[in-house]
Amino acid sequence: MSTDDPSLVRRCLGGNAEAMRQLVDRFQPEVFGLCVRILHHRHDAEDVTQEVFLRIFRSLRRWDRSRPLRPWVMRIAVNRCRTWLSRRPRRPELVDYLQDTIPGPAPDDSSELLTEIRAALADLRLEYRTVFVLFHEQGQPYEEIAEALDRPVGTIKTWLHRARMEMLERLRKRGLVADDESADQPAPPSGKKP
Amino acid sequence: MNCESFLELLQLELDGGTSLEAHEHLRVCLTCRELYRAAGLMRNGVQRLSWPAPPAGLMDRIVLRAIADRRVLRRRRWITAGLAVAAALFIAVGATLFWPAEQPEPNGSSLPLAQIDEGREPTVNLNQSVTDVGAAVVALTNRATQETVGQTKVLLPIVAGPVLDELDLELVGPTLSLREASEGLSAGLEPVTTSAKRAVGLLLRDLTPMETDTKRGL
């Protein structure tokens, strides 16, 4: 837990605009990125991000100062995304990756790989996708993810393992990891081609 | 090692554990080998995915909206608190004005009814009422009986009944008249009526403290 979380929260509760700006600045990238990953829509992600921070400021008095602030913030973000998804009318997913492309020319296979990974992420069910993004993209440990999603650590591990297996199976079936040898022949030592 | 065990180890590697690159199982199982390669691609690809950047100006919009929201909520809290105080005052004043005053005792005593002495004589009215009712029932029953028997005598033919042997049984006459029975009934009901009066008195005594609570604004 960051040592200045309680003091930052105290100043926000006192109405200090600068403190509120600092809090938004600290968590906005994570919250917004998570919203984009979950909602697959930048415009919706902007709206939800605003909703998330409004909720944070309204509920700041209820934050337990003995706990870290980030999982509490991420829990609000996940819940708002879930609510938004349940209310959003079904429409074709508008996936906007214009802001996410790697700057400069990229080889075809890496573009294809990234496209497949994004598509695989989009196909994951909400809980699996959330856990995968929080662990692999944001680098959060199991305990923080469990606190953010209000689930036991064992459940988080199960969800993440299943998310990984689905992605791996998809990449394998899409031919991105085709093996040139048959199953009967032993694999060559790593790093050397047959 | 079977595939299931290998995949469990793969999960541990993806958690940041030991590499399985040289694992024996990879030499013999094509599927697991492909999955292992897919895991490598997945890890590299995820690292190269650029994290979505928030648009410029989003932070300013959020902060301005949060400040405005805070002002609105504070105003609402003040209004709610004011309404609650006004409602409590209104209830207190209304209870003071409209709550019925406690009725004094018929004998001038200010004691509640529950404090009636045990040996005190019960009121006459209830006894008298029960006696009167009993007498009325007796009179009505007698009249109805006489009328019925009279009609029956007219309707039924006189039939000479069988001669019965004289019974050895000695018939016992009634020990009590109906009037005495009704008086006994009213005497038996006295404890019930006394208990009822005592219960009502206790209830009224428990109700009277509500007036002082209301005055205190609770």
Structure notes:
- The complex is a heterodimer of chains A (194) and B (218).
- With 194 residues, chain A is mainly alpha-helical.
- Chain A has eight helices and no strands.
- Chain A has helices at residues 5-13, 17-39, 42-59, 69-87, 108-123, 126-137, 142-149, 153-173.
- In chain A, helix 2 packs across helix 3, helix 3 crosses helix 4 (69-87) and helix 6 (126-137) packs across helix 8 (153-173).
- The model of chain A is unreliable at 97-108 and 182-194 (pLDDT under 50).
- With 218 residues, chain B is an all-alpha fold.
- In chain B, 67% of the residues lie in helices and 0% in strands.
- Chain B has helices at 3-14, 24-28, 30-48, 58-98, 124-155, 178-207, 209-215.
- In chain B, helix 1 runs parallel beside helix 3 (30-48) and helix 5 (124-155) packs antiparallel against helix 6.
- Chain B is elongated, with a radius of gyration of 48 Å.
Fold blueprint:
The complex is a heterodimer of chains A (194) and B (218).
Chain A: H1 5-13, H2 17-39, H3 42-59, H4 69-87, H5 108-123, H6 126-137, H7 142-149, H8 153-173
Helix pairs in contact in A: 1-2, 2-3, 2-4, 3-4, 4-7, 5-8, 6-8, 7-8
Chain B: H1 3-14, H2 24-28, H3 30-48, H4 58-98, H5 124-155, H6 178-207, H7 209-215
| Number of DSSP E strands of chain A | 0
Estimate the global geometry of chain A from the Cα principal axes: elongated
Query: How do the SSEs of chain A run, as a string of H and E?
Result: HHHHHHHH
Helix content of chain B: 55-70%
What's the end-to-end separation of chain B, in Å? 74 Å
Q: Low-confidence parts of chain B, pLDDT < 50 over ≥5 residues? A: 210-218
The structure class of chain A reads mainly alpha
Oligomer: heterodimer
Please trace the helix and strand order of chain B, writing H or E for each element.
HHHHHHH
Major sheet size, sense and barrel closure of chain B: none
Biggest beta-sheet profile of chain A = none
What integer is the average pLDDT of chain B? 74
Mean pLDDT of chain A: 83
